Amino acid sequence: xxxxxxxxxxxxxxxxxxxxxxxxxxxxxxxxxxxxxxxxxxxxxxxxxxxxxxxxxxxxxxxxxxxxxxxxxxxxxxxxxxxxxxxxxxxxxxxxxxxxxxxxxxxxxxxxxxxxxxxxxxxxxxxxxxxxxxxxxxxxxxxxxxxxxxxxxxxxxxxxxxxxxxxxxxxxxxxxxxxxxxxxxxxxxxxxxxxxxxxxxxxxxxxxxxxxxxxxxxxxxxxxxxxxxxx
Length: 231
Prior knowledge:
Elements lengths: L5 E5 L4 H12 L3 E8 L7 H11 L4 E6 L22 H5 L10 H16 L3 E3 L15 H14 L1 H4 L6 E3 L7 H10 L24 H13 L10
Helix pairs in contact: 1-7, 7-8
């Protein structure tokens, strides 16, 4: 039996990263799930990430601690209000206060390091450039640029070996298409968490950008939304 290729999958326990992990599994990769406790107000997403890693058969689930709250600058890590009840037009306009400065660059750098150690050929992340909140580090040109950086910054790249690929399989998919793909792969979205501002008992607020995009996705996909919302 041939040895499986390994992949690092950045996992927030959310809808997108979970679907990306299911796609990596479908391709036959041995999964190494990587999550971060970075001072986010919605840290219960880490419990979801653990559930996802177990359900999708990850070889290992690693949680790294980084205190981005000390830097601040985001409603997810600072004492700032999370935007609520925005229209589709408002969500698509500009960069919202929920953007965490350089977050994907930081996360991908850790993923690159772990990929070198375990011998992973690919790094998967669930970024999307269609139904998303306008974050600059979710664009195709950013992923392409980071992959180029990876070819320069790693031992494999320096020695002319197979470079580590940065995979963003959801990039050109709508949220509805992502959900439909996940359902086809057997993903149970009840185990995922997307809300930026959940209640103390873990219920989704239902009206932050992430919740609105999630609700819209399930509605357009024609799939029942299993999320436990406050409202």
